[in-house]
Design brief:
Blueprint (H helix, E strand, L loop, with lengths): L1 E6 L2 E6 L2 E6 L9 H16 L5 E6 L22 H10 L4 E5 L2 E3 L1 H8 L2 E4 L4 E3 L13 H9 L1 H10 L3 E2 H7 L4 E2 L5 H14 L19 H13 L4 H14 L2 H16 L2 H15 L16 E5 L3 H12 L3 E5 L3 H20 L5 H11 E4 L10 E4 L5 H14 L5 E4 L6 H7 L6 E6 L8 E5 L6 H13 L3 E5 L7 H18 L3 H11 L5 H8 L1 H11 L12 H7 L12 E2 L8 E2 L1 H14 L8 H21 L6 H11 L9 H8 L1 H14 L8 H8 L10
Parallel strand pairs: 3-4, 4-5, 5-7, 6-8, 7-10, 11-12, 11-14, 12-13, 14-15, 15-16, 17-18
Antiparallel strand pairs: 1-2, 2-3, 8-9, 16-17, 19-20
Helix pairs in contact: 1-2, 2-3, 4-5, 4-9, 5-9, 8-9, 9-10, 11-25, 12-13, 18-24, 19-24, 24-27
The structure holds 3-hydroxybutanoyl-coenzyme A and 1,4-dihydronicotinamide adenine dinucleotide.
Amino acid sequence: MTTLLTQAAVAYDVTDGVAVITVQNPPVNALSVAVRRGLDAAISRFAADAEAHIAVIIGAGRTFIAGADIKEFGKPPQEPRLPDLIQRIEDTEKPVVAVLHGTALGGGLEVALGAHYRLALPGAKVGLPEVTLGLIPGAGGTQRLPRLIGVDATLTLITSGRPVPAQKALELGIVDQISQDSDPRTAGLVYAQHLLGQGAVARRSSEMDAPGVAAGTLDEWRGKLAQKARGQLSPLVCVDAVEAATTLDFASGMKRERELFLSLLDSPQRAALIHAFFAERKVSKLPELQGIAAREITEVGIIGGGTMGAGIAVSCLLNGLDVTLIERNEDAAAQATTTVTRLLGDSLRRGKLSKAQHDGILADDFRTATDYKALSQADLVIEAVFESMDVKRDVFQKLDAECKAGAILASNTSYLDINEIAAITNRPQDVIGLHFFSPAHVMKLLEVVVPDATAPDVVATGFALAKKLGKIAVRAGVCDGFIGNRILATYRAAADHMVLDGASPYDIDRALKAFGFAMGPFEVSDLAGLDIGWATRKRKAPTLDPRARVAKFADRLCELGRFGQKTGRGFYIYPEGSRRGTPDPEVLGFIDDERADLGITPQRMDDETIVRRYMAAMINEAAKVVAEGIALRPLDVDVTFLSGYGFPRHRGGPMHYADEVGLPALLADLERYAEEDAYFWQPAQLIRDLVANGQTFASLNE
Ligand code: 3HC
Ligand code: NAI
């Protein structure tokens, strides 16, 4: 065996006539310039190496290659370019095998498509996720894959960005074989000897026939994607690139792919989506948690089995935790069991659980009780009872009396003061807010709300719990509404003000959906239940500043029992069983009445005006939230809105969007609006300071 390190990032050695080319660029073997150069050198060496008759490319560590190095995007390109390198691999006269383990994604899978044979290890996942970063595969993926597996299968893969497991990759024809070996090197050597024994030759996917496509297929894809993409460009550009594979020869198709890739590389959407990727990873890296170990959590108690409690229970159960749920009485406990059973049944139907897992959870991992003594062994208790300080006081007193020392006592309150809740107990260091979003077993966001006295390892446990539940945790300080709901209250008020001034709720929903939100604010209110906002408004009424402008039309709907989808009427009318509402002239009548009472002459507002005001209100409040330390950095606000509030991912979050628009333009808007309503539109001092210093929100993310 000969060993030679061609470059630190790629190793080359030969064993029994097989060249083993090992990519070693932890943690995910991204194709950095050092890896590209290393691979280039290794391929040249293999071509010239008389001892080596076949090569295997493997990844060191936990994965094959997770794709291009995302950190290099937006910087000056460095040679060799990935498509050229892959072409060199494919052009090699002697056969090359890619051995896929862990994740072979993006450029990683494209390297494998340039190889002549592909072997997957059990557990491997392969995919082309570029679309999720605002890109298309840019190193031959859109040209080689359709030749290998056809147009429809390719488009399914690259327009969703979702990876497929090894077995599916085998069925599609992306890989040639699945090895039963768990070590890539051993598996690769065995497969290479097998290929040599068979006299296998270099087999190039670029030389396969161009894929056929039935008339109308691509237009169907375009129609479907235009609806789903809500303004995101890359899914539709994927279709253009794959179309090129069907109409052009391989070299021309590659040229077309390059043009399309470069046009997206320059787009603000690419910058926004890559910001989102890194922000989601950075959000859990908190200086205060450096070196702090989380507490062990296996047994969870939940108080209250309503909408949130049941959802939180299911989230815990689906992720291997043991749950004891406390309700007020036997009837409520039975009701909670019914809800949990129904939600687990949904997971079973969707294939997220096997029948055995489902039955095991219900038999062994979940129980209800009405006596708090059942929580004596709980490591963590999450309270999700009615949003009332009196009710919560009673619950926390009981928890303090019954839970073991070191148990974490968490509240899922949406708005209440968690410092006050912590002070109810004799162990404020163990009390924290864990603010889940509805439906709690689905929504990704978890706000970890940190009161003054909380111990650092309790905060670390909140983050560890989020990871265990497959959620993204954001640290929030204590204030009315924390990060998300506090900002929501402000931009929601801005939407109500726009309605009073002339826009209809339907205009506003339409404009914001065109901007990229999944739903408009009035549709969201109808879905959540208008009674929730009504209760909050009543609770806040006594503390309302007399200068605040308050719209009454939503209260009027509630007084009429119109609570939204659940009552069939809210801002929209919902025909029996439908979740899609139609506008209601009666609602417009109520709004007209209110305008007349206030002496307002309604003004028409176009989509741009609506979006500008809505976003200005959101960003202005977000800047205050950052300045007060409620959110640690602007990126924490971005992640909150991307994972909890349906903010369009291709716009990167409100703070990234603000930088994109430009803070001077935003400040000019705020000052103009402040001339109409100085109380509501007071520009945040942080925005003034950033503009004065020529800085962006991004500068505060470091
Ligand atoms: N480039 C640079 N850094 C990357 C990276 C990449 N492609 N993929 C992951 N990383 C970094 C992460 O930022 C993180 O860094 P940190 O520790 O400093 O925070 C570290 O690697 C580990 O990543 P994760 O925390 O995400 O680890 P997981 O084990 O949870 O997930 C993964 C691993 C599934 C590979 C996930 O990281 C992932 O999805 N990565 C992105 C894959 C991707 O999108 N590839 C396509 C790139 S575009 C491309 O290839 C263009 C081509 O067509 C030309
Ligand atoms: P809900 O009304 O659906 O459920 C509350 C449950 O608590 C009921 O089942 C009730 O029987 C039970 N309960 C009341 N007092 C109790 C007690 N002393 N002991 C045991 N159980 C008791 O309310 P929901 O929507 O689940 O909200 C619960 C909490 O979660 C509130 O603090 C709310 O602000 C918060 N929250 C709600 C969200 C939502 O979208 N509904 C989102 C995030 C947080």
